[in-house]
Write a structure and sequence with these properties.
The complex is a heterodimer of chains A (about 220) and B (about 170). Chain A has about 220 residues and is of the alpha+beta class. In chain A, the strands form 2 sheets. In chain A, strands 1, 4, 5, 8 and 9 form a 5-stranded antiparallel beta sheet that branches. In chain A, a hairpin with a 6-residue loop joins strand 6 and strand 7. Chain A is elongated. The N and C termini of chain A lie far apart (about 80 Å). Chain B has a single domain, classed as Up-down Bundle (Butyryl-CoA Dehydrogenase, subunit A, domain 3). The longest helix of chain B has 28 residues. Chain B is mainly α and about 170 residues long. Chain B has a 3-stranded antiparallel beta sheet with strand order 2-1-3. Chain B has 7 helices and 3 strands. Classes of the chains: A alpha+beta (about 220), B mainly alpha (about 170). At the A-B interface, helix 1 and helix 3 of A face helix 1, helix 2, strand 2, helix 3 and helix 4 of B.
Chain lengths: ~220, ~170
Amino acid sequence: MSNITDSDSPKRPWLHLAIPISIVACFALFFVLPDNSKPGDGIQFQGNEVDEGSSLTEGATYYIFASEIELESTNAKGDPWDAGENGPDIKYRILWKGNEVFQSEEKDDSLIADWSGLSIDFDWSDLAGKTISTDEAIKAARIRNEKEGVIELVVEDDDVVDDDMAGRVEIKLDELKVGLNKRKLSKTPTNAVKRINIQVLPQGSSLKDLVDLMR
Amino acid sequence: MSKVRLLILFSSAFLGIGLVAPTISIEPRAGEFTWLVELWDQEATEIVTYSIFGAIRDLYRMDNLFLALVLGLFSVVFPVFKLSLYWLATVHHPNSNSVASLLKWTARLSKFSMVEVLFLALLILTVKALPGGSEATIEWGTYLFVASALGSMIVPMLFEKPERNGAN
């Protein structure tokens, strides 16, 4: 039988207790410190990060659409937009290199029209399951930024007989930035567009980033 | 350095990393309507990875104080305290009464050492039972945590050897 007593006990037991605690804490800190991602925030985004406010990269492709267009109270000639008291039915087209690359939906009887740039064509049969790509969901022109590239935004009042031109705006691509671009315009004999908000989104961005930018 | 101390140090290191490393990933799904949910709120279907510390912190933030306390106690406080008691036992003479007393205490704590693993197993079972095909996946941090728990189970077996030799 052992007759050993506790006379050999350490004088500072708490110091020894602290050793494993320190090891646990050190390894936890050593593992956490180099990694800035917080635990529990393991959200993984697909697609490229969007750097809002940055200039467009040459050679890169972008989604461009007008998120909001405001017209003057009368058309360029100073006449009412529609017969009676109806407001204009606003729609716009985007031309690139002389080709129409996008046409918006029409917004009825409005001086301020807005487009989300994000919509899906939904069919009841899709309830059985549907996969949607970002390209399908984005309702915007797809433009590649080339040197001295220019796009034209043609705003019209959609009429049954003939569409009235509200304004035609030429936009240099190198003046645009990723995200929201606001333009104020003056009324002239050929222009009745008061204000245009243009959204520029890089192609290949995650749907979440695009949705965030469109808000 | 003795085998026992080395094992305690390794178990402590594994525990330290295991507490902050990714432990479980949850991928929420909404069955056939997953695409619709993704379009409405992409974050709702994104894979979320939790560490044990992250889970405790999030439970606390969600006002689930009881669960945060239980998980914190069983997966952090008890295992760390147990390893500390083992270390303290190594500085006493192997056949001293203090070691026997400390081992008795740690044996009591050992009963709770795998509660966190049981918690994870229950969580995975719950997530898998949810409609819509949600998935829960064990991450590598869990294996480190289990390795630490297994290590601290082996430690008392190594302590017993001198006692048996002394008896013979």
